[in-house]
Amino acid sequence: MTNTVTAPDPSLRAAAQARSDAQAKPTGALGRLEHLGAWLAACQGVNPPRPLTDVRVAVFAGDHGVAARGVSAYPTQVTVAMVHGILAGVAGVSAIARSVGATVTVHDLGVDGLTGVPDEVRRFHVRPARPISDEDALTPDELDAALAAGDTIAAEAIADGAQVLIAGDLGIGNTTPSAALVAATLGLRGGDVAGSGTGVDAAGLARKAAAIDAALDRVGARASDPRQRLAALGSADIAAAVGFMTGAATRGIPVVVDGLIASAEALMAEELAPGASAWMVAGHVSTEPGCALAQRRLGLTPILDLGMRLGEGSGAVLAVPILEAAGAALREIAALADL
Ligand SMILES: Cc1cc2ncn([C@H]3O[C@H](COP(=O)(O)O)[C@@H](O)[C@H]3O)c2cc1C
Ligand SMILES: O=C(O)c1cccnc1
């Protein structure tokens, strides 16, 4: 596993922008679509960029001990139910991915009580994350194993032809560790980053902010080290997604970032593999306050803002047609001089 990231090719970005400028439209008339097209060309190393025919969502599923603090509106059994839902192709991300021609896999990185699934799903199974307000979620060895699992999942998808990778999340309670990671990274408190997640009421929101503050106070200055922050405040599913994102960036494959959980993971990926965020676009911004905060820190401007708060990679995969249209515009619009 390497952490060395080479930036998307700046000469191809410039060439794509020049091609766009010469096309049969007023200069700049396609707005941010032009930037997305140039970014895609730079990522692919070819101008105009190739069509996106192989986009993959890997959903990282895991349970979170902190859920016992009453931070979610739903019981933890929903995590198992939703893994089965994804396997059956009937989850939210399943429907949206199908509508855009993307594929979805799900990976158990700490789901409590998961049975009746293919071995492949449990290949990287570990125990659920310990409650972050009371103890570190992971040991250093567990952190390494989770990061390596995500890197392997990315490597295998890329070797199999994936052009774009998306990390999806699944696990009751996961907005709490994600918000805690954003708070610790940005120097904020629970009240700044806690959102309603699955729909907690005001008392639930207060419990969530308090759980985040307890975790931040417990970890203290250790949080300034990104590995310690991730092990103390994260989880195996979150760490695996971080390894998946760094695995994509180190291999020169673009990533579309989803909501709060993925944006927190992207923050961690950028710290563990500096430059990784140059391989990312934000597919959407969710309604969780920590999501916009993380994206702003990374300099990522979301493609979509639809008031979504599902996770699973759903908002990211929904943005893929916009990215594809950006590439199509570069490929198919004639040069004004040729008309
Ligand atoms: C039926 C259902 C399907 C989901 N799919 C994703 N999430 C999302 O919501 C959960 C995080 O929110 P919180 O931190 O408030 O628990 C995670 O499972 C996340 O993937 C779902 C949540 C539910 C209830
Ligand atoms: O921001 C997200 O992706 C999100 C929000 C609520 C629940 N699950 C995910």
TrEMBL record:
Which pathway does it operate in? Answer: Nucleoside biosynthesis; alpha-ribazole biosynthesis; alpha-ribazole from 5,6-dimethylbenzimidazole: step 1/2
Describe the function of this protein.
Catalyzes the synthesis of alpha-ribazole-5'-phosphate from nicotinate mononucleotide (NAMN) and 5,6-dimethylbenzimidazole (DMB).
Region Disordered, residue ranges: 1-26
GO BP terms: namely: cobalamin biosynthetic process
GO MF terms here are: nicotinate-nucleotide-dimethylbenzimidazole phosphoribosyltransferase activity
- What is the source species? Propioniciclava coleopterorum
Q: What is its EC number?
A: 2.4.2.21
Record protein name field: Nicotinate-nucleotide--dimethylbenzimidazole phosphoribosyltransferase
> What's its catalytic activity?
5,6-dimethylbenzimidazole + nicotinate beta-D-ribonucleotide = alpha-ribazole 5'-phosphate + nicotinate + H(+)
InterPro entries given in the database record = Nict_dMeBzImd_PRibTrfase, Nict_dMeBzImd_PRibTrfase_bact, Nict_dMeBzImd_PRibTrfase_N, Nict_dMeBzImd_PRibTrfase_sf
Composition bias, kind Low complexity: at what positions?
13-24
